[in-house]
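Notebook, bench 3.
Goal today: get a predicted structure for Pyridoxamine 5'-phosphate oxidase family protein from Streptomyces milbemycinicus so we can plan the truncation constructs. The sequence was checked against the plasmid map this morning, with no discrepancies at the termini. Length recorded as 197 residues. Pasting the sequence as submitted so the record is complete.
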Amino acid sequence: MGKVYERIDGRLRTFIEEQKIFFTATAPLAGDGTVNLSPKGLTGSFAVLDELTVAYLDFAGSNAETIAHLRENGRITLMWCAFTGPPNIVRVHGRGEPVFRDDPRFPDLLEHFPDIDVAEHGLRAIIVVTAELIRDTCGFAVPFMDYREDRTLHADRFRRETDDTLSAYFEKKEHVASSIDGLPGLPLPLPLPPRTA
């Protein structure tokens, strides 16, 4: 039923890019640490960079577990489910890295997301994932569900924030600068691109 792939291309890439939601899973190294599982959406916030590399935009939120886990150990799994059409589940197991806004790579990475206004969502970082294992499974038990539209609540909430107020928002949240388990999370104050003259 399942198959292992050497790269993200062809029908596999098309399937991944057509999905409206995907999930990320990370965990700390500690055996009693908190496993994190997050849904990711917003049309235009995910990109396949090449046959072994994908990236997604990490937007404002009240936690930063994924960032904390990636900073500690880099392990991440991404998963897509077919909620329409033929059943399918695709997982990309790999190594992830949060690329913050002050990183010299950030502007070039941001060009892979032309269809989303990042200013509306309080962009914190771009998560870049290098695939180590790519596989699919049947998905026979995944229900049919229909996509209607993206929610506007996230943009409605964060489009009014400036870099300074966004950083202040993060500083008030208990699990942004550090994870639930006390690992370093999002660097604060919020990393910003160098100001140009």
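The chain has a mean pLDDT of 95. DSSP finds five helices and eight strands in the chain.
Flagging this for group meeting.
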